[in-house]
TrEMBL record:
Residues 49-71 are annotated as: Disordered. Residues 133-440 form the Exostosin GT47 domain. One of its GO terms (molecular function) is glycosyltransferase activity. This is Exostosin GT47 domain-containing protein. The lineage of its organism: Eukaryota, Viridiplantae, Streptophyta, Embryophyta, Tracheophyta. Pfam families: Exostosin_GT47. Keywords: Glycosyltransferase, Golgi apparatus, Signal-anchor, Transferase, Transmembrane. It is found in: Golgi apparatus membrane. The keyword DNA-binding does not apply. It comes from Turnera subulata. Its main location: Golgi. Belongs to the glycosyltransferase 47 family. It comes from the Eukaryota. It is a single-pass type II membrane protein.
């Protein structure tokens, strides 16, 4: 039914909406960069232990005069507690807009086209890439938003809730909580906003982009399978019934799909939307060909699972970093993560190398944090997908990441030169007997100090904005030639460009 609705509204979509939304991806990416860097570089896991209010329904109407302005909170649990206390569910939502007629849709299209024409002919210097980016945030029924946040909040102490590979689901939700951080900032009072280059607008005709605040990861992990699929179908119908969606077929809509297992049953109906992803997974194991690609979607970092090692910590830990290479995590994974088994066979028992089985629970977090702060290099191989939260754990720990993942796409790679903080090694080299350890031992102390300084200041000035160019300088030669149904260029680097 949803697919039929999408097809029948195709004729009403503005022919220019696709090109306009594509050209704004750069601006939106830059805006998200500021927030994303804040969270994965400045203590995404707070050292403060949260103490939630035992009352599951705190006062929904606190006196705003009693709320003092405080620095931005970087602990998901603490921030969520404050958010739910200060933000009661809205009394109205955008459901009624779905009852609009074709005439209403044409009027919306005309209003948006008129505003775009004004910006063009009024001489906006960088049109259509223009600041601030105007975002309309849908007011969705609370079962899609607030109820899911409450579900997480009221169950996160349930440590028995594990995935099939033994990882605590609530910890995984925290790692993929960028959907919460983006939404919480977009709807915050203007004086408390972090993304100053993005403004929230109250009328759809004023928007450049539309944000869909549905928590795909929470619903996937904390709801029964059939219940979750039913909710996905409800969300799909709700958003595809919206006039703005019908106008563009979703091309100017932003949808967080940050865990590769989430929203899978209905993805094919929303592939035109701008997805917020952890990686592109060009292997095709998690996303179907044509669903995700760099020209449309935005890669955002995982939230780190360990605490920030600040300047003082880095200074104090420098002399204690006696381990050459450290890894703690699941030793057996699927898809591209099968490289882990080969790496374990090659590295286990080697001098000054620590390879440990572990999960992301509290005990695992403490062990990983201690191990990373004692190590010079931290191994970051592919997992079930090409990316891994371990890369960002290493960054905030001051441990130089050693990435062995031939298909990896990194967040904001057109803006950040990861070669200054990370070593990229091809899978074929990494599993050669003795090759990896000899390579790491050949890195000079001067280069190690330089890379560690770069880790500490990664949130510094951004220079030379050239989208995706740095990726071609470092991506490794084993990258597969995977062609989507649109036959985009494969992830391949010639030997002349290879950097490891």
């Amino acid at each position: 039914m949803a697919k039929k609705q999408l097809q029948t509204t195709q004729s009403l979509a503005s022919p220019s909406s696709s090109s306009r939304s594509r050209s704004r991806i750069l601006t939106f990416t830059l805006s998200l960069l500021a927030l994303s860097l804040l969270f994965f570089l400045f203590s995404l896991s707070s050292t403060t232990t949260p103490h939630p209010n035992p009352n599951p329904n705190p006062n929904p109407n606190p006196n705003p005069n009693t709320l003092s302005l405080t620095p931005p909170e970087t602990s998901f649990l603490v921030s969520l507690e404050h958010f739910l206390a200060r933000n009661p569910s809205p009394l109205r939502d955008d459901t009624s807009a779905a009852a609009s007629t074709e005439d209403d849709l044409r009027r919306l299209d005309a209003d948006i086209s008129f505003r775009e024409s004004q910006r063009l002919y009024d001489g906006a210097p960088y049109y259509p890439v223009d600041l601030p980016v105007r975002v309309y945030v849908y007011e969705m029924p609370k079962k899609f938003t607030y109820d899911l946040l409450w579900l997480f909040r009221n169950t996160y102490r349930d440590t028995d809730n594990l995935t099939s590979n033994g990882s605590p689901v609530h910890r995984l939700i925290e790692q993929h909580s960028v959907d919460y951080w983006v939404w919480a900032d977009l709807i915050a009072p203007e004086s408390e906003r972090l993304l100053k280059s993005v403004v929230r607008v109250q009328r759809q005709e004023d928007a450049d982009l539309f944000y869909i605040p549905f928590f795909t990861t929470i619903s996937f992990f904390l709801m029964e399978k059939q219940q979750c699929k039913a909710l996905y179908r409800e969300v799909l119908k709700w958003m595809t019934d919206q006039p703005a969606w019908k106008r563009s077929q979703g091309r100017d809509h932003i949808l967080p799909v940050h865990h590769p297992w989430s929203f899978k049953s209905v993805r094919k109906y929303v592939k035109n939307a701008i997805w917020l992803l952890p990686d592109m997974d060009s292997t095709g194991n998690w996303y179907k060909p044509g669903q995700v690609f760099l020209e449309k979607d935005v890669i955002l970092p995982y939230v780190a699972n360990v605490d920030l090692c600040d300047a003082k910590c880095l200074s104090e830990s420098e002399s204690k970093r006696t381990t050459l290479l450290f890894f703690r995590g699941r030793l057996k994974r699927n898809a591209g993560g099968k490289i882990r088994t080969k790496l374990v066979a090659e590295l286990s028992g080697a001098k000054d190398v620590v390879i440990e089985e572990g999960t992301a629970g509290e005990g695992g977090k403490a062990a990983a944090q201690i191990g990373m702060r004692k190590s010079i290099f931290c191994l970051s191989p592919a997992g079930d997908t090409p990316s891994s939260a371990r890369l960002f754990d290493a960054i905030v720990s001051g441990c130089i990441p050693v990435v062995v993942s031939d298909e990896l796409e990194l967040p904001f790679e057109g803006l950040l030169d990861y070669r200054k903080i990370t070593l990229f090694v091809s899978s074929s080299d990494a599993i050669q007997p003795g090759w990896l350890l000899n390579y790491l031992k050949s890195i000079t102390p001067a280069r190690i100090r330089e890379m560690r300084r770069n880790l500490a200041k990664m949130a510094g000035k951004l220079m030379n904005i050239k989208l995706h160019t740095r990726r071609s300088q470092r991506v490794v030669k084993e990258s597969r030639s995977v062609c989507s149904c649109d036959c985009r260029r494969a992830n391949f680097t010639s030997p002349n460009n290879l950097v490891i």
